[in-house]
Each structure stands twice: as structure tokens, then as C-alpha cells.
Amino acid sequence: MALPKVFISSTCYDLGQIRDSLSEFINGYCYECLLSERGDVFYHPDLHTHESCLNEIENCQLFILVIGGRFGGEYKFDPKKSITNAEYEAAKFLKIPVFTFVKKDLLDDHRLYQKNRHNKELVEQITYPSIEGQEKAVNIFEFINQVRSADVNNGFFPFEFAKDIKHYLGKQWAGMMFDFLNSRIKDYNQKVVNSTLDNLSLMYKKTEDLLENLVRNVDPTSGNKRIEDLDKIVIASKFYKQVLRMFQMETFSSSFEILSAIEPSDLKWYQYLSKFGDFKLSKPRKKEDLGYTDPYKSTLFIQDIKGRISWTVESEIDEYHSEVLLARSLYDNVRILDKNERLKALEFTFTN
What we know:
By secondary structure, the protein is α/β, with parallel strands linked by helices. It is 53% helix and 12% strand.
């Protein structure tokens, strides 16, 4: 059985007890803990030890970063960084969950640094009690800033003792388990929904095929024509459904008989709707009347009668919302219908 691997990244000499305590804690979860000083990292004979450490991170699923007051060994390929810094960047690049802990006294000094960081001369004169090797103080503080300024996974927790880290990790890992289980339930429910929709779609298609075959067998001479006419009505009803959705309406105020009598052939889709009694067109202001050029001022809107929802239907900049473009494209299916067919399309809109 595969077990999660946890990489602990920190300086070793000053945080040895913390690392040992965390190792026992991690093993208590039946996770596999990787500590470089215990030989858990494979040091490839053809690579520098720093490269070996970074390569080992690729095999891990969790990453614990502990920052103390010691800079540690310089990273071979960038002396401005510590090996701990390089390990963190590798974990971040691989998108491994990182849990960061910073010694409390170091954080106190970090606040002092933050207040004076733009005064380089003053920063160099300050002695930071938590730092071992004052010449590396800025590097350590900027490493903390790097963690804090990350786009994601940028939280960190102050600690004094190993028990503080273990308490925090226990809660965070419990949260991860909850998130995993909750997502699993949601994924299962989504699969059920998708399966149901697929089955309904299949049943609909089978029913449609059966009805078409039945119509053709009962009325071989005009069966195909009747099916084509029905398809026209079904497709035209999509325009009415789209309008209802755009304006968040459940129905139209006028009767279907009145609406079906409105002849759409010479009207644009929004002009057609403006005759329903549920919609109105705004009067665009001409830019020359305003004394300056502004394409938005000559825009035409269609609104519901209460003016709550408005859509741009004509504009000099010729940019329209996808919902408007969809309504415009579906409208052609209404224009080809006669009065009786429009009545059937309206009825179909609310019965299917």
C-alpha cells in the first residue's frame, strides 16, 4: 500500500529536536517522513547533494517548511539562497501542499525589519536577537516575505515548541481529509446526475426515433413533412425559452393567441419583442446632440417593462453579450413560421 511521503525542510543543526519530534508525529499518522540527515534522501553519485534533495521532493505529497534563525547552507547554484529556500521553491513549483512554520521570536524580529526595510543603513545596524549570523538576517526575512507573498498556499504559523507545530498540522491534515471526503461525495453525486442525464437523453432519442418511424409507417406519404414541421416548431420554441431566461420571466403577460398574431417577418428580434407588452426599447441619444463622440451614447437597449433587466441590441462598437447573440441567431427560426405554427411553438415552450 502506497503511503504519503512528507518532506521536512529546515536547517538541521538548530532545529534538530524539532525535526526528530515531527518525524515521530508523522510516523504516527502512518505517513513516511523524509529527513536528509537520516539517509532518507537518495544521493545520486552523479549529482550534487543539493540536486538530490530537490529531486527527492518530486516523490513527496506533503512538504513541511520550518524557518528558524539560522540561514543554513548556501544553495550551490544561487548563493543568495539557502538550500531550504531552494527546496521550498521546488515544492511550490510542483504544487505540493506546503505547511510553513516560523519561530515566534524570529517573527517578532521580522516585524521590526518590515518597518525599517526601506532604510538599508538602519537595517544593517540593527541587531536581531533571533538571528544566528547577522549578515544573513535580510536573506532570512526576505525568505519569509517570499512565502507570505505567494499567490496561493502562503499561510504560515508561529511556533515556540514542537507541540505547537504538531497541533497545527493535526488540524490542517484533518481539514484536508474532510475536503477529500467531501469532494468525493460531490464527485459521486455529479456522476449520478451525469449518468441520469445521459440516460434521459438516450431515452429521449429512442422515443423520438420510435415516433418518427411510427408516423412514417402510419402516414407514408406525408409522414416526413409532418416530422419536419414539428422540428421547426420545437426549434422555434428555443427562441422564446431564451427570451424568458434572459429576462428571468416565467411567462408572457399576453395570451398565446395574441402573441402568435404578431408578424415577425419584417421585424428585428428586439422590435418583435417590443410588441409583446412585456418589453420596451430605449430611445438612443445621438452623439451629435451631445456635442462629442461617444459610441456608447448611440446604443439601443431592450428592457423588461419594469426596467430591471437591460440588454444592448444595437451599438456602434458592435459588441454584444453572448445571450443577445444567441437570441438573435434563434430568431430566424421564428420568422419562418406562420401564425398557427407560432402558436404551437409558444405552447410547446411552456409544456416541455
